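README, section 4: Worked example with a bound small molecule

Sections 1 through 3 covered apo chains. Here we extend the same pipeline to holo records, where the ligand is supplied as SMILES alongside the sequence. The molecule in this example is thiamine diphosphate. Nothing else about the input changes; the structure line simply encodes the ligand pose together with the chain.
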Amino acid sequence: MELTGADIFVRCLQEEGVEYVFGYPGGAVLHIYDALFRQDAVKHILVRHEQGAAHAADGYARATGRPGVVLVTSGPGVTNAVTGIATAYMDSIPLVVFSGQVPTHLIGNDAFQEVDSVGITRPCVKHNFLVKDVRDLALTIKKAFYIATTGRPGPVVVDIPKDVTAHKAPFDYPKTISMRSYNPVLRGHPGQIRRAVDLMLAAKRPVFYTGGGVILGEGSEALTTLTRRLGFPITNTLMGLGAYPATDRQFLGMLGMHGTYEANMAMHHCDVLIAVGARFDDRVTGNIEKFCPHAQIIHIDIDPASISKNVKVDIPIVGPVDAVLSEMDRVVADSGRAPDAEALAEWWRQIDEWRAMDCLKYDRKSKLIKPQHVLECLYRLTAGEAYVTSDVGQHQMWAAQFYKFDRPRRWINSGGLGTMGFGLPAAIGVQLAHPDETVVCVTGEASVQMCIQELSTCRQYGLPIKIVNLNNRYMGMVRQWQEFFYQGRYAMSYMDALPDFVQLAESYGHAGMRIDRPEDVEGALREALKVRDKVVFLDFITDQAENVYPMIPAGAGQNEMILV
Amino acid sequence: MRHIISLLLENEAGALSRVAGLFSARGYNIESLTVAPTEDASLSRMTLVTSGSDEIIEQIMKQLNKLVDTVRLIDLTEGPHIEREMLLVKVRAEGGELRAEIKRVAEIFRGRIIDVTDTTYTIELTGAGDKLNAFLDTLQRPLILEVVRSGVSGISRGEKALKA
Ligand SMILES: Cc1ncc(C[n+]2csc(CCOP(=O)(O)OP(=O)(O)O)c2C)c(N)n1
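The generated complex, written as structure tokens:
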């Protein structure tokens, strides 16, 4: 039997087991919307802006490990989604984005709502396709899901002209697929793994430095087992938080520009660095010339192009982190050897000294609400079990520092692109994926306004997201840089003309609270956490002058931190 | 160092723009780039000439390999190989003496005159880049009306072959 392209599209999504499509209709995708309307296996979530669709699908993907699916119309539908696609690309999040396109005979004519979607998205996707023939549609969709979710994951765009969705073809969805030009590595090289283990066992001052790849590659368990067996200290990047339990003694906290003193000092002084699913980003390395001057480096990554890109490594291992770490653990166990206990004890003694600096301390007696206090309180009241999304700025760094994630996929933020506006729509995807869990969006009054329209989406689907707005009336992170590096000339960083967030939330049918005294923080959070049918917008009026510490200024080495 | 990289790509619309986009986005050098279909209609072959430090070339190879359309690639300069480029040059050729002189130089370089008018010659020459450069240097600058170079293509010597 022949089906129209639109029906083929829906059948493909059903075959892929897609639960939600995040999207927004328009002329070029009306056949597809009609096909979606005639079934109910795949549910469509209507956002209020296509950027929100991409972020929501992204949040869903980060929280579940399954691909997020987006559907937008041609032209402005696609261009609106680009920020969300680029966000997913920078953090290697599996998304499949379907865009409508003008009919094939009009392509290239500057037709109404035509844009070169494949061209516009090319630099920020793992791959993209333009489907010109309905007979290619099913196979292309299969490839899109396969490419998005395997190897180093990433977004894939499939651009579908309107006539293709009307034309008919037999439907046949391939069960499996292989592509001669795309073959992700399935295991690490055993010889390299043995060399790495030898180096690790000989180390005197080792440290694990692990990133988002461990979470994407489902490697948390293997990482935890191996790290515990060896007794080595471990630090996570902003993207890697939750891959190793943050409450564990071996955990040094986050590293990098706003990482802990002990994490950065351990990096600087280590003799063996084991980098896993991390990419030596400039926010982590600081000045590359001064990065880990004494270390021999092992780097495990699924993407060969990540290895020796920024920092030359000594033992590269290309492979899935989960498989490689498990194999390493087996090799260590079978060898009957153990790390140098004496050297390790000395190393830990040194690290404990750094730790005793208590670099995250802040004024607990302040009459103003300290953002750190709000986050500590949130952590305590949610028993560390919440899914926390975030935007970009100081609040993001404080959330990363003060909310201790013991499990992967709970900390959801735009680390690579640093996209303000990510937090709220991402929380939509997370809450839909986990309807019974507590989902908190930690944001700032500037970031949250970038996708504030999604409050309407939250209302429509009854999503009980808790918005923790750390309202300092400033683009705080910008203000901090201006204070440190521009002699306090606060150009355009003051957030004037703010809305009354309580009324704003209420006008969307949600609840709002404004909290301006430290003693009210806990009560407000307690009350908000009880609400299960709508958003609670908690507007915390915080200390405007608070800065994020510690800080490695741009261009400095990891041992050159500003502490307070 | 100068490197000649050969790629087999899926013959898909947009494959070329992916390669070109990669080079511009990452700020890599590109000296020449040629692309054409192969005996297998589903593949096209691209030859890229670039230069950079060993680290950069390693990154270029990895990034190219990462493109979903890339089936195989090789850095020809890593082994014995043959490099060829075709040059078409149109020169002003007026007066018997000058015409004879140009013809003689072309012959020395094993070039062929492929188009003749009362006032011009068009010469075709094939070889490695430095041979083409040497030929152009030999011609008197003011005489050159137009230069067209095909860009480099290359192939490994011996048994080695780049196959899907
Ligand atoms: C879309 C976008 N535009 C601009 C920036 C640059 N930027 C980074 S942090 C920041 C300020 C964020 O302010 P706010 O959301 O209030 O958070 P705070 O730093 O005060 O916690 C800005 C403008 C960005 N990251 N994203």
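What to look for in the output: Chain A touches chain B at residues 118-119, 122-123, 126-128, 130, 147, 179-182, 303-305, 307-309, 312 (CB under 8 Å). The CA atoms of residues 94 and 153 of chain A lie 5 Å apart.

Section 5 describes how to batch many such records.
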